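agent> Task received from the user: take the single chain below, predict its 3D structure, and emit structure tokens. No templates, no multimer pairing.
agent> Plan: (1) validate residues, (2) run structure prediction, (3) serialize to tokens, (4) report one or two observations.
agent> Step 1 OK, no nonstandard residues flagged.
tool_call: predict_structure(input=
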Amino acid sequence: MTRSEEIRQRLTQAFAPAELHVEDESEAHRGHAGFQEGGESHFKVRLRAEAFAGQSRLARHRAVHAALGPELIAAIHALALDLDTP
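)
tool_result: status=success, residues=86
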């Protein structure tokens, strides 16, 4: 399973999102810190879920990091999050 698939699977299980886009932006960072051959190092996630209702931006980010888990977070160099309710 790729990291993209793992991110998608864990976020779907944790939040039952109305919208979820996981984009591997690694190639755009070639030559920069954290770039890994084969990609899977820089991601952009757009997630819309009812679970975020009433949560602050920080609480939403913490919830996503918790859902992904420390091992997956450690394997990712950059994770841009766009989180909101539907």
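agent> Step 4: summary for the user.
Strands lie at 19-24, 42-48, 78-84.
agent> Done.
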